[in-house]
Amino acid sequence: MSYAITDETRLTGIIGTPIKQSFSPKIHNKAFGHLNLNYLYIPFDVQQQSLGKTVEAMKTLNFRGFNVTMPHKQEIMKHLDGISEEAKIIGAVNTVVNQQGNLIGYNTDGKGYTRSLKEEGVAINNKTFVIAGAGGAARSVAIQLALDGAKKIILLNRTLQKAHDIAELITKNISDAIIEVNTLENKNLVKALEEADVLVNSTPLGMYSAKDQSIIEDEEIIPAGLVVSDLIYNPAKTKLLQQAENRKCQTVNGLGMLIWQAAIAFELWTQVPMPVDYVKNAILRD
Fold first, then answer.
1. Is 23 assigned a ligand-binding role in the annotation?
2. Which residues bind NADP(+) (predicted)?
3. In the chain, ranges of CATH 3.40.50.720 domains
4. Does 158 belong to an annotated binding site?
5. What class, spelled out in words, does domain 110-253 have in CATH?
6. Looking at the chain, which residues constitute the CATH 3.40.50.10860 domain(s)?
7. Annotated binding-site residue? 277
8. Confidence category of residue 60, pLDDT binned at 50, 70, 90
């Protein structure tokens, strides 16, 4: 950064636990420095029992805003002064903006994902999406896809009730959404892929701790022309994405979602667009 931290430095940050693995401080501080904005982004490891006091402290210290990560994305909502309509539907907040002393919650995860697809030339409107997994990320992504006009969303999860919960949430709030649910097993995945335009992996399979695993057992079931998207960004090429490349499919990893959800939060705080290409290249270099 080309400036000293002063009493005019605007504070932002992220709260969650554990927090040391987060890429967010690097993303935001690189962007602030590149644009010569007098902002600072600080990670805070916050336990559940300290959440309320932490939020009050951030308001008292006049933080411009902060991100919220696991396990606080739902619990944070009771400590805020207002919540955006999309965050209400999703039932989770990942970004908070201090608007003249009022803390307003937003959810940028879903918009970050759909923006990352659009940047890769992947259409959403009138397309069929198969989502593997039914956690918080899947919920945000599925809701935003429905809001953006996806033709159909097929949710596959090992615990069927979690998929049903997301489907019910979407159909309750988006009247024209078409949602199907089924268990995540090979025969159901094969059937779903027959009509899919895009496959989305939101499960942990493929992360470094499970880097030799994939939701796909046999890559031969991946149809030609399918777009395969993995929300995992580390490693950049999961086993699933390698399988898809072997089948000559377009692939999209999770780095774009990570950066674009951050970019939306960045602009909410600063009213300045994030230099996305610069940040992405800087992250890849590191």
1. yes
2. 85, 133-137, 157-162, 231, 254
3. 110-253
4. yes
5. alpha beta
6. 10-107+259-285
7. no
8. very high
From 20, 26, 59, 73, active-site residue: 73
| pTM of the entire predicted model | 0.91
Q: Which CATH number fits domain 10-107+259-285: 3.30.70.141, 1.10.10.10, 3.40.50.10860, 3.40.50.2000?
A: 3.40.50.10860
Those residues whose C-beta lies under 8 Å from the C-beta of residue 122, and which sit 6 or more positions away, are 198, 227, 229, 250, 252
Cα–Cα distance for residue pair 216/243, rounded to 1 Å: 8
pLDDT band at 1 (very low <50, low <70, confident <90, very high): very low
C-alpha distance from residue 141 to each of 14, 48, 269 (Å): 21, 25, 23
161 is in an annotated binding site: yes
Query: Residue 69 annotated as binding?
Result: yes
